[in-house]
Amino acid sequence: MIGIGLGFFERIRLVSQDGDHHLEILPKEITLLLKV
Questions:
Q1: Contacts of 19 (CB under 8 A, 6+ apart)
Q2: DSSP line for 1-36
Q3: Is-contact 17 36, C-beta < 8 A?
Q4: 12 alpha-carbon distance from chain centroid
């Protein structure tokens, strides 16, 4: 699991489970979460 936090306005979460990719955009920060 890799988490990258950037202090931006939006939060982007990318989750990969069982070869399925899921992208979430949440307020106040940009966080790139890569789950293997």
A1: none
A2: -EEEEE-SSEEEEEEEETTEEEEEEEES-EEEEE--
A3: no
A4: 4
Check the CA dihedral 23-32-3-18 and report its sign.
positive
Number of residues that this document lists for the chain: 36
Residue range 21-36, pLDDT digits in tens: 666 666 555 555 555 4
The stretch 16-21 carries a mean pLDDT of 62
Q: Which residues contact 1 (CB under 8 A, 6 or more apart)?
A: 33, 34, 35, 36
